[in-house]
Design goal:
mainly beta
Length: 418
């Protein structure tokens, strides 16, 4: 019996590793939209955002467990951030209008002080990309609704060199593998609704068209796992595309989403994909988009949906997601589980016919309480304050009760026999 029980726990943890990854709500102290993330190390990270009245920059020193506001800027929210190390970073802001230039902020002291510059005369900064020793900035000129300018900096934004400009190509996103080779997407026109893809082998000085796809949408996602395997996505008519030949041809993927979902960010970690969008979950794929599942976000009471704007995934058990309205979530370790013999928690009766009671002699505080079936699927979510769990309506069989605290998780095997 003990051997069978251990096998059950091991099998459940295998499912839990992919399906039961847990996101934890973190208090940021702000209700302003959080737009972008940058982590120069696994412990030190920065988040930027704001609203129409001001911009905000937050910092963490403990991998996202807690955050402190380190900078406020009146009038303009931030939309991009990148730090090359714990001290040197750049943040870009929206402009105040079509005739006003967007500002670029740089710091060399870890965000304590920032210097502002708008001399590049860009109305809209649509992307920043770092590769090797070069930082690339993609934008559009003041009073221009189309066209492209790409600047390069070798000193994290202290000085800039214009490497490419075009009046007829409008890039929305860029991706560089090194200081020479990269991809770009953009140039949707209203008469063809076609998305175009380009490549460069000279650091962005020239671009050649390599492929296209007939779809219309706001282009928000452009990321590559290798020089051959990449992804493009957007919204209006929400779409997610995949290429396995370096952007020449693309196929449509089918994650569980609706046409009205806003897709904001695709994070790649090995073969694992994390898709940030509107809704109550982050979409997760363990196999580069072949299969998908939902990772639920523990939204605050009264919050209907989250808008996941950016993601940083270090591994399958550690990551951070930033959202609108100051919401921030941290991916916690689903395999950090207390053994039953070491836990003061117990459940009874077990087997149970309907009501399962949690005995909590140390009065530990639960953050989430979930029930999984023996295939690793989440079938119930209970209030963390409830110690009597109603299992009625479930099929007879074996289940696993997962109790999440701030520091660990406890898993109990349950037999339900109504």
């Amino acid at each position: 019996m003990i051997k069978k029980y251990i096998v059950s726990i091991v099998l459940f943890l295998i499912f839990l590793k992919g399906i039961g990854q847990e996101w934890q709500l973190i208090n940021t102290g702000t209700i302003k939209d959080l737009i972008a993330l940058s982590f120069p190390t696994e412990e030190v990270g920065y988040a930027v955002g704001g609203d129409f009245g001001s911009g905000i920059i937050l910092k963490t020193d403990n991998g996202g467990a807690s955050w402190t506001t380190i900078y406020n800027e009146e009038g303009i929210p931030f939309n991009h951030v990148y730090f090359s190390d714990e001290n040197n970073g750049i943040a870009t802001a929206y402009s105040n209008g079509e005739s006003e230039p967007a500002s670029i902020f740089t710091t060399s002291d870890g965000g304590i002080t920032w210097q502002s510059d708008n001399s590049l005369n860009l109305r809209l900064i649509t992307d920043i990309e770092y590769s090797g020793s070069s930082l690339y900035l993609l934008g559009r000129e003041i009073n221009q609704s189309s066209g492209t300018k790409i600047y390069k900096s070798e000193n994290i934004g202290q000085t800039w060199q214009l490497v490419y400009e075009s009046e007829d190509k409008t890039f929305s996103k860029i991706h560089f593998f090194n200081t020479l080779y990269g991809y770009a997407q953009g140039n949707i026109t209203s008469d063809t609704d076609e998305l175009h893809f380009y490549s460069t082998d000279d650091g962005g000085e020239t671009w050649a068209e390599i492929g296209g796809y007939n779809i219309y949408g706001n282009q928000t996602i452009f990321n590559f796992q290798t020089e051959l395997v990449g992804f493009s996505g957007g919204w209006y008519s929400s779409y997610l595309l995949k290429t396995i030949d370096g952007g020449t041809t693309w196929e449509s993927l089918n994650p569980p989403m609706t046409g009205s979902d806003v897709l904001n960010k695709l994070e790649i970690n090995g073969n694992h994909l994390y898709l940030g969008k509107t809704g109550e979950a982050i979409l997760y794929s363990p196999d580069l988009g072949e299969t998908w599942s939902e990772q639920s976000l523990p939204l605050p009471e009264g919050t209907i949906t989250a808008n996941v704007n950016d993601l940083k995934i270090f591994n399958e058990t550690k990551g951070v997601a930033v959202c609108s309205n100051g919401l921030l979530f941290r991916l916690i370790d689903p395999l950090k589980v207390e053994e039953i013999s070491q836990s003061s928690l117990s459940v009874y009766p077990n087997p149970t016919k309907k009501i399962l009671t949690i005995a909590n002699p140390k009065k530990e505080t639960f953050q989430q309480v979930y029930l999984f079936d023996n295939k690793g699927r989440k079938v119930r979510r209970f209030s963390p304050q409830t110690l009597q769990l109603d299992l009625s309506g479930l099929s007879a069989g074996q289940y696993f009760l997962q109790l999440n605290t701030k520091s660990t998780q406890v898993i109990k095997r349950i037999i339900f026999n109504p």
